[in-house]
Fold this sequence. Notes:
Strand order of the largest sheet: 4-5-6-1-7-8
Structural class: alpha/beta
Low-confidence stretches: none
CATH superfamily of the largest domain: P-loop containing nucleotide triphosphate hydrolases
CATH topology of the largest domain: Rossmann fold
Order of helices and strands: EHEEHEHHHEHEHEE
Amino acid sequence: MGPEILRDVSLHVEPRSFQFLTGPSGAGKTTLLRLLFLSLKPTRGLVTVFGKDRATLPAAELPLLRRRIGVVFQDFRLLDHMTTYENVALPMRVRGREEASYRADVVDLLKWVGLGDRMNVLPPVLSGGEKQRAAIARAIIEQPEMLLADEPTGNVDPPLASRLLKLFRELNRLGTAVVIATHDLHLMDQIAARRIVLADGRVDIHD
């Protein structure tokens, strides 16, 4: 099955907590995020999310659990044929909700992340930083209990990275547990937060 990416890793993400996940390239940061998002099964060991064991979780329950988790992907994954507003509202549409029930929430959220004047444009028109903020807005529109962000500041300049970090901190203050995978030491030095350091397949935690 190939070499183990992670081994002997033991950690617990507390509700309403904030932590950075860091380590050298190839250390397994994205793999650990995928395990937390339940998109990957461990070859051995136990992964429990919201009290549910991934190994025994019925397939029908996966979508319900994932709705409680927001994910900001490194490559944005915005749909180019949809406007910024439509991309952020997509999780609501997928659930079959009527637009009237969520439109105000989407508009308010886009204003909160600084995209109030960009909600009707298509992603190809947006800058890298604007795409990143749109991806964050889409990830948190359903007010997730946990947010996983994979290198969310990797494509933006330092001032915007600091602004994005403030958005994540504010979201955390509102009650969401936040896990940010990053190798940006300058970003991590801006706030006092738990650091989960991956190296050689193992984890070292600095509180």
